[in-house]
């Protein structure tokens, strides 16, 4: 089954470019387009896409609010959201991740990276490119906890190894990279990540990364 993708961007030329890239892949099908958040909601209900490629700044309804409605408790389907961004909109990326986005990607990312991101998000993983994550967190270092705050009680539910894994997830490492770092199998890492998400009541790796920084477990630049 092909991955069903909905393109949401207020610039038709960009949507056309993304469509050309994605439709060249045998396992991806672009099922629709929308020029703003309100149209996106209608299209998600009508087309039931697997992944929504979502711009942030759009008329009528922005990508943050659209993401919140698409992935929230009253969602109409299984769609996951991959946010498109530029670095001058970083504050909106943070809000989009909190709203339920499964990751973010630069608008000028190479075609191969866009395709891979679609596949990663469709598979239920998070798209947290380490270079983007570091720049995002460095920019907002002053707004994040210093790491000297008391550790939240919820973290005490985790084993020492699970805390290690959470820290590495927060830095944008993939399961294979974490496995190499900790000298364990990738299957073991997947098990640890699953335990972390369950114990902390988190939806996915993106929420885990946000939690790790907001709780002060990980500090930008550390």
Topology, please?
Blueprint: E1 3-8, H1 12-23, E2 28-34, H2 37-47, E3 51-54, H3 63-71, E4 80-85, H4 90-99, E5 104-106, H5 111-122, H6 130-139, H7 160-170, H8 175-182, H9 186-200, H10 205-214
Helix pairs in contact: 2-3, 3-4, 7-9, 7-10, 8-9
Radius of gyration: 17 Å
What is the CATH architecture annotation of the largest domain? 3-Layer(aba) Sandwich
Major sheet summary line: 5 strands, parallel
Strand content: 5-15%
Please work out how many helical segments DSSP would assign: 10
* Helicity level: 40-55%
Under CATH at level 1, the class of the largest domain stands as: Alpha Beta
Low-pLDDT sequence parts: none
CATH superfamily of the largest domain: Response regulator
Instruction: Kindly report the spatial arrangement of strands forming the biggest sheet.
Output: 2-1-3-4-5
What form results from the Cα inertia axes? globular
Helix and strand succession?
Answer: EHEHEHEHEHHHHHH
Report, as a whole number of angstroms, the end-to-end distance: 42 Å
Tell me the number of structural domains: 2
What fold name stands as the CATH topology of the largest domain? Rossmann fold
Tell me the structural class: alpha/beta
Number of strands: 5
Overall average residue pLDDT:
82
């Amino acid at each position: 089954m092909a991955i069903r993708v909905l393109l949401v961007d207020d610039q038709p030329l960009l949507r056309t470019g993304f469509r050309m890239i994605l439709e060249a892949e045998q396992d991806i099908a672009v099922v629709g387009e929308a020029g703003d958040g309100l149209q996106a909601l209608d299209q998600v209900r009508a087309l039931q896409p697997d992944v929504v490629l979502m711009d942030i700044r759009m008329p009528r309804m922005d990508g943050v609010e659209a993401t919140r409605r698409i992935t929230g408790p009253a969602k109409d389907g299984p769609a996951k959201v991959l946010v498109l961004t530029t670095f001058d909109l970083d504050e909106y990326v943070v809000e989009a991740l909190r709203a339920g986005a499964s990751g973010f990607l630069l608008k000028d990312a190479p075609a191969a990276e866009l395709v891979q991101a679609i596949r990663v998000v469709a598979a239920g993983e998070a798209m947290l490119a380490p270079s983007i994550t570091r720049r995002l967190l460095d920019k907002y270092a002053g707004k994040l906890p210093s790491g000297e705050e008391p550790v939240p009680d919820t973290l005490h539910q985790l084993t020492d190894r699970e805390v290690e894994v959470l820290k590495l997830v927060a830095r944008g490492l993939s399961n294979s990279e974490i496995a190499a770092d900790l000298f364990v199998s990738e299957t073991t890492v997947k098990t640890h990540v699953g335990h972390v998400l369950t114990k902390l009541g988190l939806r996915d790796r993106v929420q885990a990364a946000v939690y790790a920084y907001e709780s002060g477990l990980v500090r930008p630049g550390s």
